[in-house]
């Protein structure tokens, strides 16, 4: 808001705009229409304080940053992390509960074969 009040230096305005855009992307990541609408509103308000150009530049930079999620290597990393989490959760349930293989399979959302493999790995 201090950007809109015109009380900051150019580099401070850019940093504040970056933070605002980041927060908008974070809060509206599942609603692209609302995100576009809010950014358009920010641009209109920014025009009043001569920061519209900065907003547009930072939005372009932000778009590049968020497109990394479409990268195949990024997606592979997410999948690998998810699989590792499932394996760790399965291991923990096997060690610390009396749940059956079927119950663990349902809780972790994996196949019973997956649970049996983790169980086998635990016992050598």
Structure in words:
This protein is an all-alpha fold. The protein folds into two domains: 2-70; 72-122, no CATH class. Helix content is 79%, strand content 0%. It is built from seven helices and no strands. The longest helix has 25 residues, at 72-96. The relative contact order is 0.08.
Give the arrangement of secondary structure elements:
Elements (H helix, E strand, L loop, with lengths): L1 H4 L4 H18 L4 H17 L3 H15 L5 H25 L4 H8 L3 H11 L2
Helix pairs in contact: 2-4, 3-4, 5-6, 5-7, 6-7
Distance between the amino and carboxyl termini: 60 Å
Oligomer: single chain
Rg value: 23 Å
Total domain units = 2
The low-confidence parts are: none
Number of strands: 0
**Largest sheet: number of strands, sense, barrel closure:** none
- Average pLDDT for all residues: 83
Please indicate the percent range of residues in DSSP E strands (runs of 2 or more): under 5%
Order of helices and strands: HHHHHHH
The helix-and-strand class reads mainly alpha
Q: Counting H and I runs of at least 4 residues, what is the number of helices?
A: 7
Helicity range of the residues? over 70%
User: Outline, from the CA principal axes?
Assistant: rod-shaped
The gist of it:
With 124 residues, the protein is an all-alpha fold. It is 79% helix and 0% strand.
């Amino acid at each position: 808001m201090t950007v809109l009040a015109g009380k900051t230096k150019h580099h401070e305005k850019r940093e504040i705009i970056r933070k605002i855009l980041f927060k908008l992307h974070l809060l509206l990541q599942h609603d692209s229409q609302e995100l576009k609408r809010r950014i358009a509103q920010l641009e209109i308000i920014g025009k009043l304080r001569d920061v519209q150009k900065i907003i547009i530049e930072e939005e372009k930079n932000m778009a590049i940053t968020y497109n990394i999620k479409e990268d195949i290597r990024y997606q592979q990393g997410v999948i690998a992390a998810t699989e590792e989490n499932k394996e760790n959760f399965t291991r923990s349930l096997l060690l610390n509960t009396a749940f059956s293989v079927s119950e663990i399979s349902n809780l972790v959302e994996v196949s019973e074969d997956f649970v049996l493999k983790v169980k086998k790995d635990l016992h050598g």
